[in-house]
Amino acid sequence: MVLVSKSSTLASDLNRNLKVKIDSLKRLEKDYKYYQKELEEQKNTVQQFKNDSTKDEYDVKKQVEILDENKTMIIDTVKRLTDSVNILTDFLDDNQDKTESLEQYNEALELVERLYSEYLDGN
């Protein structure tokens, strides 16, 4: 039987929890970048449909609806990204004395700072 101290179990749990939060933010960032790319592509598609006299009005309208849905997804992703950044920041603040020694602590700080400056500043 192996005895594990509470402190090492706590550190392991904190490390795991921190990693999950970091990975979640990275996933949301990928989603955001994907939706931004998709938005630009859809804008081009809408413009092409509008410029093409052979396209039916219904087809143009459908492409505009797709564009609007994409804009909605971006808004939702920014909200989820903001919420996740706040959750991670709160987690780091609440556990600062315990998390500073964890491997992912600096990665988490850098990620929060980068996401805030690139995507959330001014939103």
From TrEMBL:
Compartments where located: Cytoplasm, Cytoskeleton
Description of how the protein assembles with itself and partners: Supercomplex made of cofactors A to E. Cofactors A and D function by capturing and stabilizing tubulin in a quasi-native conformation. Cofactor E binds to the cofactor D-tubulin complex; interaction with cofactor C then causes the release of tubulin polypeptides that are committed to the native state.
Gene Ontology BP, a term: tubulin complex assembly
Protein family per UniProt: Belongs to the TBCA family.
Membrane-traversing stretches: none
Record keywords: Chaperone, Coiled coil, Cytoplasm, Cytoskeleton, Microtubule
Residues forming coiled coils: 11-52
Organism taxonomic ancestry: Eukaryota, Amoebozoa, Evosea, Eumycetozoa, Dictyostelia
Gene field: tbcA
Molecular-function GO term, any one: beta-tubulin binding
This protein's GO CC annotations: cytosol; microtubule
Main location group: cytoplasm
Name of the molecule in the record: Tubulin-specific chaperone A
Pfam families linked to this entry: TBCA
